[in-house]
């Protein structure tokens, strides 16, 4: 069941667009903001609000890289794997994170703290390699700094 | 050297507030256009300035606008969309403008909307630009409060709504018709053209999608005129350009410079040259979907016409350097991994071809390639080229591949012959 707050926020988004369906990406963002991800149940409830079938909404949800249809950790690490970061050695950062967190891409640490995901170019190629944790952007990342960076996200 | 777009951008400071922006001449162009010029005059002015789309395609902006139906009996509302979905790998120029001076973008959007008679405008911003989003939300509110947005702007009868839409991440959203589908809450798949968005765009209404940098040029063109704008450039393509360099150079970054500075100047002067111990081997001049240029092209001016004549595209003007200690096969594999992942999957050549190319490149990079793999790569550059796919994603993906096969063919063949990557 969506909460009263989620429903109110989704109705607000619907009020801003000419067709209910047009608010669907915003609606998915609302759910994800509250729950961290979009479960099958939330998806169905949201679809009902938008006048869509769950399948149609799922086709939108799964098209985009940053709507999570599986549970994620409290913090999501998005590591840029595009060309400038590759040239500047992001693979060392990746290997270090995998070793340190003992998870692979797409997995969450057993304590539910971090999920590690590759991400396309973050648009900060002059300060590569780069990663984002939640809303925080980290640039010119070095292996030496990684522990400190992770420490900021409990 | 004049730097109109970045003159008031100081990356270490907060962007200008509305009052600060007005104090340095901000919104004067809106006053001038709305109070003194007709929309037709603005369209002609921009057409004459030879402003070409800074998103990569390089189409004349005024000409693009001129296809929008005008007059009292046309379908409404009409829309103007700022394409701020900067997701081309290696590209970070719009971030500078978005974070640095959101009011300049808003002013440009008001001017474009006035020229085409738009009623509603959107900034389509990629999710990753969090700081930009905050600045834009604040600036839009300030512009509403000051009466530059909303009903009856400056008492002229012209009205304009503006909204920020933040995407949820997919490269396809940068393609203008796919962007419109995303704004409508659909999968961001490209639409068939015609009809062009100018006639039937967002919700089937006339729509213009312009790149952020393109829109940011408009206040300056309206203030100073078409001839002034052309005079900023060293070559036949007008204006300044935000150029960028990334890779193994001493000072990677982005700079507003006269259109037509050479690749050599960008690499050696502005980026400070290659890092010690590294040599320049090649560069993608304008993002991941442009053809490699190599040492023989270093003195080519970075403008649409000259870069095209050299066999590539200026694209976004943000260059990615390939150095002599980076494997070109690995480099191209990284690019094809991106394109294969970001293909929308709608048309078969792109959906099936790009993963095939990616796998072949991975095999070669691992020393498991076979001589016939070169043939597989060669024919993909034809079959995924222009005219064989629904949109420009796969042809764009083939540009760095086909030029790598041309300039670095020996490196590919050495991997296959030696059964290993010479760079590992």
UniProtKB/TrEMBL annotation, chain A:
One Gene Ontology molecular-function label: metal ion binding
Enzyme class: oxidoreductase
Protein residues bound to [2Fe-2S] cluster: 80, 85, 121, 125
Family as reported in the entry's similarity comment: Belongs to the complex I 24 kDa subunit family.
Manner of cofactor binding, per the entry note: Binds 1 [2Fe-2S] cluster.
Protein name: NADH-quinone oxidoreductase subunit NuoE
Gene3D superfamilies: Glutaredoxin, NADH-quinone oxidoreductase subunit E
Alphabetized PANTHER family for the sequence: NADH DEHYDROGENASE [UBIQUINONE] FLAVOPROTEIN 2, MITOCHONDRIAL, NADH DEHYDROGENASE UBIQUINONE FLAVOPROTEIN 2, MITOCHONDRIAL
